[in-house]
Specification:
It is found in: Endomembrane system. By secondary structure, the protein is α/β, with parallel strands linked by helices. Helix content is about 40%, strand content about 15%. It has helices spanning about 10-25, 35-40, 65-70, 75, 90-100, 110-115, 140-150, 170-180, 195-205, 235-240, 255-260, 270, 285-290, 290-310, 315-325, 335-340, 370-385, 395-405, 405-420, 450-455; strands spanning about 50-55, 80-85, 105, 125-130, 135-140, 185, 225-230, 245-250, 265-270, 280-285, 345-350, 350-355, 465-470, 470-475.
């Protein structure tokens, strides 16, 4: 049985008709969206309140659950006619969701959190589903790689040992400084996972990535390394132009640098924080309240797509890569996307290593929106000054619970269990916290129930009572 149970033959027949229309329209190359009338018919008798939807995404591999939900008919199964629309950058995407031009989107985990707490913009957004674990890397220019590689310890095969600490950049940064040049690196958005991962890696290696002051989106106070924003698809060109000497971005834009022979991924995010949470599916809080059945239907479709992506050890990944390589999705060459999404990762020509967990969409409860994940992001916002003042632990708990919505996730996921679509053990039994986590490159453990105690452990970063001004860090 599927979610059509209880709506009678008319609804089941409508869904079958809708799926048939998708299959027929898709004969040839790309699948065409089912018509609005067909989707409306499939949602008859109140199953979904808004069957025609527009969702946004950025051209990255980890938008895959949305593309698969569309192309494999999972949205259609739920009575939804979904248009997926690429966005120019993360700011445009965020504004589209807030303004209602988009009904939801593939979002940076930090975006709904920052909007809710009022950093950058103020809006009530929620994240009822996590899209994936891992999926990013840090790439450096050939120039920088040539400066650090000779001194790296190697394995028996002569290839560099991983993970590689950012401490190897200290002499490089010093050389740039002596030459009167800043050492510039790129990330995709001030509240992106990439910003926080890059900062975490640099700080763990003894380099200060800089602090934010109120109203300052540059975050360069006291910085050893200057970080700036570049949209993901533009990262390789920006590196090649010499504007930046490295960047943190999602795939396939690290592999694109390898293919173009302009840079070398020096570390993956899984090596910075093992099985770290990545993107989320974000939407407005009032959308979920106004259209609860539609929200549930979207989540069901995406969860089914996540399961498909991780099924049987990744047997569907080649097909997923082919879909993502289409110009209306990621639009990168098949080989570039496959270089990280099919259980391997290429650091440089001749150095391809197994990486079965580089992209995780369904396994390890990847879809569940843990409060502790949201709290980690907020600790990093506080660490670097985006949250300018101290807050007690309860504040972190309250803000996390306002944004991350496991209740909505569980409603959808448990209905899929009841329908026999996903196994019962795919849904975690949890209070919303992962418990104490290790796997960080600096060896520090993180407990989401003790955010202030965690912040106190971090050597570089704001401590309790400290603030940032244009002249530097003040306070205890």
């Amino acid at each position: 049985m599927s979610s059509n149970r209880g709506f009678g033959f008319t609804r089941r027949a409508a869904v079958v008709a809708l799926l048939a229309s998708v299959a027929l329209a898709g004969c040839g190359s790309k699948s065409a969206a089912p018509s609005a009338d067909a989707a409306a018919a499939a949602s008859a008798e109140g199953a979904v309140e808004k069957p025609v939807l527009k969702l946004g995404f950025i051209k990255l591999t980890d938008m895959a659950p949305l593309a698969i939900a569309k192309e494999k008919g999972f949205f259609a199964e739920e009575g939804l006619n979904v248009t997926l629309e690429p966005q120019a950058n993360w700011k445009v995407l965020l504004d589209g969701v807030i303004g209602g031009q988009l009904d939801g989107a593939h979002m940076l985990a930090g975006q709904p959190i920052a909007a809710t707490i009022g950093y950058g913009t103020k809006a009530d957004l929620i994240a009822p589903l996590s899209l994936d674990l891992n999926g990013n890397a840090i790439t450096v220019s050939n120039k920088v790689w040539s400066m650090v590689k000779p001194d790296l310890p190697t394995n028996a095969d002569g290839k560099p040992k991983h993970p590689i600490s950012a401490s190897v950049l200290q002499p490089v940064v010093a050389t740039f400084k002596k030459q009167g040049k800043p050492f510039n690196m790129g990330m995709v958005f001030p509240v992106s996972t990439h910003n926080y991962e890059l900062r975490y890696w640099l700080a763990a290696g003894g380099l200060n990535p800089g602090f934010y002051t109120p109203g300052d989106v540059g975050g360069t106070v006291d910085a050893d390394v200057q970080l700036s924003v570049t949209p993901p698809p533009q990262m390789p060109a920006t590196l090649e132009a010499g504007t930046i000497e490295g960047y943190c971005v999602g795939e396939p834009w690290n592999q694109a640098a390898v293919q173009k022979k302009i840079g070398v991924p020096i570390i993956t995010d899984d090596e910075i924080w093992h099985d770290n949470p990545e993107k989320v599916f974000g939407l407005r809080k009032d959308f979920a309240e106004k259209y609860p059945n539609t929200t549930k239907a979207m989540l069901r479709a995406i969860i089914k797509a996540q399961q498909w992506l991780d099924a049987d050890g990744g047997k569907n990944r080649p097909e997923a890569v082919k879909i993502l390589s289409q110009s209306n999705y990621v639009g990168a060459d098949y080989d570039v996307i496959a270089a990280s999404m099919t259980g391997k990762f290429t650091f440089e020509p001749g150095d391809t290593r197994p990486a079965p967990g580089f992209n995780i969409f369904f396994d390890k409860h990847a879809g569940y929106p843990y409060y502790s994940d949201a709290i980690w992001y907020m600790t990093q916002m506080r660490r670097w000054g985006q949250i300018p003042e101290d807050h007690d632990d309860q504040w972190y708990f309250d803000e996390a619970k306002a944004v991350y919505r496991p209740d909505l996730y569980l409603t959808a996921a448990k209905s899929l269990v009841e329908d026999g679509k996903i196994p019962a053990d795919a849904v975690p039994e949890t209070d919303g916290f992962r418990g104490e986590q290790g796997g960080f490159i600096d060896g520090i453990t993180y407990d989401g129930k003790q955010p202030n105690a965690y912040l106190a452990k971090l050597k570089i970063g704001l401590k309790q009572g400290q603030r940032v001004t244009a002249s530097g860090v003040t306070g205890n």
